[in-house]
Amino acid sequence: MRNLMLCLCVLMASSLAHAERLKDIASIAGVRTNQLIGYGLVVGLDGSGDQTSQTPFTAQTFNNMLTEFGITVPPGTRIQTKNVAAVAIHAELPPFAQPGQSIDITVSSIGNSKSLRGGSLLMTPLKGIDGQVYAIAQGNLVVGGFGAEGADGSRITVNVPSVGRIPSGATVERAVSSPFASGTHLTFNLNRPDFTTAKRVVDRINDTFGPDVAQALNGGSIRVRAPLDPNQRVDYLSMVENLQVDQGNATAKIIINSRTGTIVIGQDVRVQPAAVTHGGLTVTISENFQVSQPEAFSGGQTVITPSSQINIEEGDSRMFVFNPGVSLDEIVRAVNQVGAAPGDLMAILEALKQAGALNAELVII
């Protein structure tokens, strides 16, 4: 009896080894981040700001700011402020963010400023896609890069000094409405749509909370009945999103990055019966020069004549056979035995696909 219980525990552990929490493989429709963007000025730079002669919008923005404070710049005045830079600010507004909370922002130079190190961002409104102001940004920049330049024009730059961040640099001024607390149902959207995964999610929820609580809308969305009271809905979703679900296996794919030589083969890749030979020719051409020296006092001239030598070596051609239903491990082992380089492996996989012996999608990026 003890051994039987031990076996059952091992089986249960193995069955849950590949299970994932629902919150890790799906998201709730409507509960999402929103992108914010703004345009402003960074001041206090140590001579690394925009050259206003080449970026007139920086001078225009600076003049507009002075006008708001009651300072009028005489017409025709050419402003040269090397400690000011025009920047773009972007941030992500988290779901359920409320007025008064802080969010991180990223500040990027849009002019010809060489570095934002030591600068301070002046008060800048951040707007959403609807044109409404959702946050106000201001603060001192944290820049990870730096640069140095010599009098002879030599320059060294570490990382990117023209981009900086301000932790908690923006204050939320407006909340984004969310459909979370409305309606009688919520929808879970799978991060990787799959009919098998959708079915397993529905079965898992219904087995836990009762029949017909969850319904699959398609291979990527599951509608779940939820309480109307917001407090009960939060408690309910806390239990739902922590349910363990076994994901369905992904489509058999082979990803090839032709630039880096990286090859990723999925676990469900199979090969039909096929024979592959691997080998090649190595052609070496060497140029030698021979000197023809005339005899003494013969009146002849020294002549240099080229001599070419061509050597052809044929590599060892090895053939290996793929039996029906060969697995990923056997494919990799067979190819490694013949010493194929990443480029050769790409050619072998492409040839197998063209021959109809590769039961997988070949994706080249």
TrEMBL record:
Stretch forming the signal peptide: 1-19
Subcellular localization(s) per the UniProt record = Bacterial flagellum basal body
Biological process (GO) annotations? bacterial-type flagellum-dependent cell motility
| GO terms assigned for molecular function | structural molecule activity
Highest rank taxon of the organism: Bacteria
Tell me any Pfam family this protein matches: FlgI
A cellular component annotation (GO) from this entry? bacterial-type flagellum basal body, distal rod, P ring
What keyword terms does UniProt attach to this protein? Bacterial flagellum, Cell projection, Cilium, Flagellum, Signal
**Entry's InterPro entries?**
Flag_FlgI
Q: How does it assemble?
A: The basal body constitutes a major portion of the flagellar organelle and consists of four rings (L,P,S, and M) mounted on a central rod.
- Give the family, as the similarity comment puts it: Belongs to the FlgI family.
Q: What does this protein do?
A: Assembles around the rod to form the L-ring and probably protects the motor/basal body from shearing forces during rotation.
Q: What is this protein called?
A: Flagellar P-ring protein
